[in-house]
Design a protein that fits this description.
By secondary structure, the chain is an alpha+beta fold. It has a single domain, classed as Nuclear Transport Factor 2, Chain: A, CATH 3.10.450.50. It is built from four helices and four strands. It has a four-stranded antiparallel β-sheet, with helices on one face. Strand 1 and strand 2 form a beta hairpin. The protein starts with 18 loop residues before the first helix and ends with a strand. Pfam families: YchJ_M-like.
Length: 132
């Protein structure tokens, strides 16, 4: 398998068996980490609608379409998941801490965030996060 077939999310699996099925069926992201990885891959693959659809409905992500389009235009290079956990108090809440590396105007940048996800109607959604 060539590196170009590897899923952008960093699992070393082929995209066709990793994030692509989730991109086609959001409910296959059965953990917060799978959803976060699929959202990162969606940035690499420029899947704006998927990113919008996986925000929690309360975020009104459609209103931020232009900003999401800008974010997918960045040159996303690497994802590293640092930690992933479910809330001890609420099984429908989870957290994923990650570092994402991207290039903009020839400079490498790193985004580190602890993202919060909520499960509603059997699907995980990104709701917010703390950027470090």
């Amino acid at each position: 398998m060539s590196k170009s077939n590897h899923c952008p999310c960093g699992t070393k699996k082929n995209y066709s068996v990793c994030c692509e099925p989730i991109h086609n069926n959001h409910s296959l992201a059965i953990t917060p980490e799978l959803l976060m990885r699929s959202r990162y891959s969606a940035h690499v693959k420029k899947l704006v609608q998927y990113i919008i659809d996986t925000y929690h409905p309360s975020c009104n992500a459609e209103e931020f379409r232009e900003g999401i389009i800008d974010s997918v235009e960045l040159d996303w290079r690497k994802l590293k998941v640092i930690a992933s956990s479910l809330s001890k108090e609420n099984a429908n809440e989870g957290f994923v801490t990650f570092k994402a590396t991207y290039s903009e105007d020839g400079q490498l940048h790193q985004l580190k965030e602890c993202s919060r996800f909520v499960k509603e109607d059997g699907k995980w959604f990104y709701i917010d996060g703390d950027v470090e």
